Amino acid sequence: MKIIVCVKQVPDTSGKVAVNPDGTLNRASMQTITNPDDMNAVEAALKLKDETGCKVIVVTMGPPPAASMLRELMAMGADEGVLVSAREFGGSDTYATSQILAAAIDTIGVEKDDVVMCGRQAIDGDTAQVGPQIAEKLGLPQVTYAADIHKDGENITVKRMLEDGYMTIKVQTPCLLTCIKELNNPRYMSIGGIYETYNKPLDTFDFDKLKDHKLIDPSTIGLKGSPTNIFKSFTPPQKGVGVMLEGSGKETCEELAAILIKKHII
Amino acid sequence: MDFNLSREHQLIRKMMAEFTENEVKPIAAETDLNSEYPRENIEKLFNLGVMGMCVPKEYGGTGADPLASAICIEELSKQCASTGDIVATHNGLCCDPILTHGTEEQKKKYLPMLTTGHKVGAFALTEPNAGSDASKGQTEAKLEGDHYVMNGSKIFITNGYVADVFVVFAMTDKSKGTKGISAFIVESSFPGFSVGKHEVKMGLHGSPTAEIVFTDCIVPKENMLGKEGRGFPIAMQTLDGGRIGIAAQALGIAEGALNEAKEYTKGRVQFGKPISKFQNTQFTFADMEMGCEAGRLLTYQAAVLKGQGVRYTKEAAMAKLWCSEHAMKTTTKALQMFGGYGYTKDYPMERMMRDAKITEIYEGTSEVQRIVISANMGL
């Protein structure tokens, strides 16, 4: 059994956001972090590794510096890393990205008792599309919004967190799960893990490695091939300071109503 | 000469910075206020492999180098000097002498306890009448058959009332002066071992300091650390290494105070602008920053030399002296920038200033460091 976890390096939103002239994010100029939901997916995989001794492989698509993120995840306990990186892949939207990642995962190989895990969504694009699209392209059953995961032989019981409640689903491996922050608290790197990480295998899948894969259509990958294009990216201006009305009496209510009427809200 | 940290050291700093921000910072004020030993965090530090990190893998550690340990202590001390102290004592003053001077049997028995076994370590040298003049200890150990009988007491022992394993120095032959001192590994469970007074201190409230009392304490013969009569050089050598830990702790305190003051002065508006924009504030920051950088270079240099196995006595003393005096200066100046708020417990400045003071005293006072430095200058 092995678990393949898809991860993404995203801009640290506590810093400033920089945008390229073509509307895509200028990732090189920003501090980066591992996407928070992906950290929950990694932790879920490592918990299963603790229980079963299975192998955990972390996969990311991104520029070469994304390798440092994979090293950090391997310092947490992942066994191997795969960096999918090529100029031809740059600027891919979710459709193109899921094609490339699905091809990469298929190249690693998904066997009977394997699991693919993703974070629910990345904090840069917030689409939540890549995980489900990978599952579709690989023909795997998928369970999204996993808030609890239990593996019992070939079956995995997943508690999904929905807006108005929970749904418990039993799914057979191989399958794909997307994970949410309620699932767990990601562990830290360990000192031992840090000393081991640079001795662990880290493979790079470039364009040549994946271009002939059956899931790849070179005309629908990268910035040019992506069906969706970014029209404009910008940092929204900060909202002004609000007005606080104090008190619970009739006067305060009238004051509030007067403001709302003046703004044509009521 | 390369001043960049290795990839591993960079990751260790990142991991410890995250741990400190998420686990240490939220409880630092409470730890101080309630004089509470941060037990849960120490457990977590065992799980992460920070406690006893320089112990080789075969004895349960990770085989990290002294620089890695210094970086961990520095990061922890940016928010909580008590936590930094507990780690520094465990790693530098207990694991290190057992690793350096222990027999294979001692290493196999005690180092796994101090790493994977989650047992805390301590170092007991100081006595009421033997502080800077450590050679005047009165604690005695007499050989009786297959064990020593130890009598006496030690004071100001860091980790005193939480530790399970102590490196203890006692006279085995009073007639020989310092050559009559021997080192022992003593477990808190040995008959005749007891914990005396818990010290109420000015700072480092989360670090458990106590008196240790030996009343006909039975110490197995095989627990002598190093050869008989070699205790004093073992103590001095251990303190050389321990000073790197205290230098790192003091450096962390100074950096922590500097970071707090930077944030505060950028937001505090007086006379129509943030006080960080006044030249007096900026010049003070320049001095603080420069002192921290110098301290970092001295500390890392001493740690790297220790890792290389070459003599580092003078370098460790210089690092400890510089960093502790800079921590005191920096916390005092940083508190001043907070004005009245700095004097209250609403901000961490007064705690940092109280914590900084001890670094000028323990593991050799500033005066002792000057003795050590000048003694190594060929004067």
Question: In words, what does this structure look like?
Answer:
The complex is a heterodimer of chains A (266) and B (379). With 266 residues, chain A is α/β, with parallel strands linked by helices. Chain A has 8 helices and 11 strands. Chain A has a single domain, classed as Rossmann fold. Chain A has helices at 36-52, 67-76, 94-108, 130-138, 191-197, 207-210, 222-225, 250-262, and strands at 2-7, 9-11, 32-34, 55-61, 80-84, 115-119, 142-152, 155-162, 165-172, 175-179, 202-205. In chain A, the strands form 2 sheets. In chain A, strands 9-8-7-10-6-1-4-5-11 form a 9-stranded mixed β-sheet, with helices on both faces. Chain A has a two-stranded antiparallel sheet with strand order 2-3. In chain A, a hairpin with a 2-residue loop joins β8 (155-162) and β9. In chain A, α2 (67-76) crosses α5 and α3 packs across α4 (130-138). Chain A is globular, with a radius of gyration of 22 Å. With 379 residues, chain B is of the alpha+beta class. Chain B has 3 domains: 7-114, Acyl-CoA dehydrogenase/oxidase, N-terminal domain (Butyryl-Coa Dehydrogenase, subunit A, domain 1, Orthogonal Bundle), CATH 1.10.540; 121-229, Beta Barrel (Butyryl-CoA Dehydrogenase, subunit A, domain 2), CATH 2.40.110; 232-375, Butyryl-CoA Dehydrogenase, subunit A, domain 3. Chain B is built from 10 helices and 10 strands. Chain B has helices at residues 7-33, 39-47, 66-77, 81-101, 104-114, 231-267, 279-308, 313-338, 349-358, 366-375; strands at residues 121-124, 140-144, 147-158, 165-171, 181-187, 193-198, 209-220, 224-225, 269-270, 273-274. In chain B, strands 1-4-5-8 form a 4-stranded mixed β-sheet. In chain B, strands 2-3-7-6 form a 4-stranded antiparallel β-sheet, covered by helices on one side. In chain B, strands 9-10 form a two-stranded antiparallel sheet. In chain B, a hairpin with a 2-residue loop joins β9 and β10 (273-274). In chain B, α7 (279-308) packs antiparallel against α8. Chain B is globular. Chain A binds chain B through residues 71-72, 75, 188-195, 197-198, and chain B through 7-8, 11-12, 14-15, 18-19, 47-50, 53, 57, 62-64, 68, 72.
